[in-house]
Specification:
The protein is mostly beta strands and 733 residues long. The chain is built from ten helices and 53 strands. It has a 26-stranded mixed beta sheet that branches. The protein has a 19-stranded parallel beta sheet that branches. Strands 1-53-5-4-3-2 form a six-stranded antiparallel beta sheet.
Amino acid sequence: MKNTPKRKQRNKPGVVLFTAVAVMLMLSILLTATVSFVSVNRTKTNDNYKSKQAYLTASSTLESFINQIQTDTAPTNDPTAKAQQKKAIDNLKKLASANSGKGTTTNVSYNGSNGKSDNIGTTKITVAQEGTSVANIVVTCETTYLGKTEKVAAHISTQSVTKPAEYTNTIELVGNGGAGYDNLNVIGDMAGINNTTGKVYRFTNNTSIYGSYLMYGSLEVSTQPLIMLKPSLVDEKQGSTVTISENLDVSNKFRINSTMARADGYNYVNIGQKLSTSNHMDVGSLGFDVDLFCCEANIGGNDYTQYGNFYVYKGAGAYNGDATFGANGQTINGSLYVEGDLNVTKSLKVTGSVYVTGTITGKDKIVCQASNIHEGAVLSKAGRDAKPQIPVSADAYVYYPEDFFMSNDTNVTTISDQYKAFYSDKNPNTKTFNTFASDWTNVDYTLTELIDLTGTGAKTPVTSRYKLRITSSCTWASDLSFNDYGNGSRILVDVSDSSGDIVIRLQNGLNLGAEWSPVIVVRNRSTIIDTTTGDRKYNCYFVSDSGSAITLNGIDSVTGKSQHSGSSACNYSFKGLKVFDYDTYVRMFDSSVLNNTKGNPGLPQSGFVLNPTSVDVAGSYRPKNSSIIFLFGENTTLNATDQSFFQGSFYSPQAIVNIATSGLGGLVVTDSAGGKMTVQCCAVGVVIANSFGNANTAFYVYTKPSTTSVMQNAKGGKDDSAFGYTLDRYDHY
């Protein structure tokens, strides 16, 4: 095989998305064997060079085929066109995989400008597998002209890849209303992603976020909260930021610090409109600079201290980049940049330089070397001084729990059959927890398994006991006997290859008081593993009783989001409910707890350290991506109180999640540097809700959901599907 210089110039890879036009071209060329768009100018062909004519015919046929598809194809978000794209790739794969991978060969005829057949040689197009995988295809054009044969080929890698959804926030609000947080503590990032103007969020009573914060709206701070910028729990190489699209109003002590030295790309606060302070704000610390950007500043009251640069740049509307500094005690350990006018009414210490585009009032009150004060300056806004962009919108959700419940599209959901079976007229799934309680093989169940408790590879037999075992999809109804299953009964949900996905419907109105306090342990031993992420194929879903009247109304042409109607409202109330992943449960508690089938498990055993970061930390346990998923449909409300705890992910973008509980006490959590803190923990996972309520001093710790769960299709994925191919190279044989 040889690759001529001329061919090499065309070796430019690019992903091509097949639209409906491409489908018609594909079928026309490959199935009817007509290449009507190929035009070869015979007057330019020298009949004395038979090989050259054969080569030109073959290469023109192949390149015209490839180029025409590229020319007539454009990316699309239309679901109908995407379905056609997928169909086109499937047809191409069928042609390639025919004859045990030898493919399909078609003879091509050429039509001249007069409509008659042009005698420029005979050409065969072959679509075949390259190697053993149908994902790699070679399209070959072989032309024979007056006894001379030339062959060229295009090597293609087919793609039907869905970009997986990324879940980076421990708590994420999707609704268009504001919210108040009382003693909320988040290890990981937090966001309010609905870009609706005028929303106001409020932090009170020592709320803290150990990560990044993104919100659309305004933030009011009244009671000493803390944002500690820490390395990303998604990627430890990345840092953290605070982004507020509108105003920040600080009326009581507010600290924004960092555990990282500043570097480009992180350690900044970006306020889209105005910063106002009236009582003590600290930004950054010695050796850990945090820059601050806003479009207007009014610093007053008592104390403003910053380590880092302070930037006031012009913004939209009336925000002219003006700044007023009138606090009792104000220091910027860095430089000050003002694109409008600067008014200093009380002593302002600046250790770096002051750059003001407009005028300075109160210059004598600036404690700074006179040579470092620049009035009428031109601001570069480059490098570190460039204002970070506030994204126009966050990554929107396309599919909702209702799609997972009712869709027939297996590219969207894997659990609709199980969900629909709860409401089926034929062969309905009438199993409840009580069904398993009537089978004595599932009652007082003892499990012994070899487990690597130390992370060294050495396995130890671990025995745990359960009052009840669940092995397939069913309804959690209020039909269990309290005498048998009250008082903190341990219930094992056993996911396996034979069970597949286990879907547990929560009966509408399920209300369990503190006397029940069930402990749910989900064990996942599916042997089919995603080789990229290590996640097991099957998962456990707790779903709302949203009914069978749900209608999926297609994708909205403006928003690109799925539409639905008919989802029944549900209400749930739990006191003392605890949900654990089995692998965490058997490490978190000692044998005295594991051997009990009832009772509050209490505090984690001494020495257990939970690691929510993306790197291994010696002496800690890092859970895998969570295979426990809570899917709550529209107008569902969950109230969980009295030391409830959830290890799993909530996807409830149109539901209300209130976890007003102190959670699980005494949980030790580490960061990537090995630092430890002991917390009261309400949840380990991600919580995505229309609105979220909390109470008491409680922590929420990040762990992302399994990449094999239906949550991977909720956002990002369907909007960026690539049903197409990469043109790897051309070859001339």
